[in-house]
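Appendix B, example 12.
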Amino acid sequence: MALRLPTQLATPGRFHHHHRSKTLVSRALSWKRTIAPDAAHFSPLSSSTSTGRCNVGPRVMCTAETVGVVNLAPGTPVRPTSILVVGATGTLGRQVVRRALDEGYEVRCLVRPRPAPADFLRDWGAIVVNADLSKPETIPATLVGIHTIIDCATGRPEEPIRKVDWEGKVALIQCAKAMGIQKYVFFSIHNCDKHPEVPLMEIKYCTEKFLQDSGLNHIIIRLCGFMQGLIGQYAVPILEEKSVWGTDAATRIAYMDTQDIARLTFIALRNEEINGKLLTFAGPRAWTTQEVITLCERLAGQDANVTIVPVSVLRLTRQVTRFFEWTNDVADRLTFAEVLTSDIVFSVPMNETYKLLGVDVKDVVTLEKYLQDYFTNILKKLKDLKAQSKQTDIYF
């Protein structure tokens, strides 16, 4: 696929990286372990302008302290079209990569070494580099020649949240600052500042503060929920006549198509007036679990086998519900029991944001349209497969 530079992109400026530096790492990350009186208590965030400090667990306090920044002589000019996508294989990350390539960006993807390589990213036209946020020494080489970092990453379910989502992100931000990265786009979670009891939300808020204090040119985008996550959660089980799990909570979430999130992100990236801002992207309407299930039932043409789990049970067993598709199964990582006990709406009015970005609300996909397209396509395929099966069931 031929790459074509979009007309909206700014003309290349004299942005530079430092190939060598006696003080490449200009910040130091220190960890201080403290024993809390109550092992079940998650302490609230405390931060200052010079340090990013985050209590993200019952016994561990994470502290990232600024030591100082030294900028040396400029090196090789870097094109503004050169971007690094971190978390490129995830639900959102892959859509960011596709959008970037379609708009003519030169895309590099930071991917952890694994048995199954991310060949689909190479097939699309991206460059894949192996690195691991949990191993800070692997990060600097991936940033050479990069103008903008788009950070979609979140740690895997089986690993401690702090390892990637706090320690790894702090290291990435520090390297970006030391190597002269021109812009850093960070995806966070809506209302993360209001729920320190949820570990990942607390860490996302801590990372926001650390990024803001770093001095990097940045954009922070808070998200509510992904429409793509609803397919495995509700659509597929209904079609396969399997159990659909839900809660009796009144929580409402404004899901958004990750393709729309990626499109709006690049509009924001090209708008210099948005530098340093915190935006929240939300879908056109907020939905309860039961409303989503009812919609899927109508579009599938069959009833769901719904198992309702009371929120009180979730709180007692510390089980987790799946409302955000941050990883393969973020439901295993977010403790939403306390969050779900009240009538919370994960949504925000988008009129001002649409106006700021120059976007028409009619161009943003609704959940009804997204699920209708999915069920229409999948039911057609099932019908075709059934017809082919009947044709082959002929014996002579």
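The chain is about 30% helix and 20% strand. The CA atoms of residues 193 and 205 lie 6 Å apart.
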